Amino acid sequence: MSQENVEILERLIDALGRGDVDEVLSLVTEDVVWIAARSAVEGAFHGHDGMRRFCSDNAESFDVFRLGTSEELRDLGDRVLAVGTLHIRGRGGGVETDFPVAGIATFDGGKLSRWEDFRYRELALEAVGMSE
Length: 132
Description:
The chain is α+β, with helices and mostly antiparallel strands. The protein has a single domain (2-126), classed as Nuclear Transport Factor 2, Chain: A, CATH 3.10.450.50. It has helices spanning 2-18, 21-26, 39-42, 47-61, 121-127; strands at 28-35, 45-46, 62-75, 79-90, 96-108, 111-117. A 6-stranded mixed β-sheet has the order 2-1-6-5-4-3, sandwiched between helices. A hairpin with a 3-residue loop joins strand 3 and strand 4. The chain is globular, with a radius of gyration of 14 Å. 25% of the residues are buried. The model has no long low-confidence stretch (mean pLDDT 90).
């Protein structure tokens, strides 16, 4: 089941980058909790309505929203560690930038039930009781 979770996360990342809300919703539980880096300001996104809002906010704010986890995808059983870079280009000004991403994805019944972005690999590892 755990390799399947890695594949589900990869599909979800791709769907978010394409802005495919229907695909996103098909890969998450009804009660998903999505804690993005910006949740420190905006709060977590809860359930399918929260994911719709997250996707809508991305579409309104960014011409490009591409999450790459090329650095590391580590199977942790019912969780997956994802480390990479978020590449964005803001609407209007065209400013492009990259941000570090290091998150823990938790799965339940073949769907993502929680995502928490810690930004940095070390913090994500600490959250699951691991270290370098």
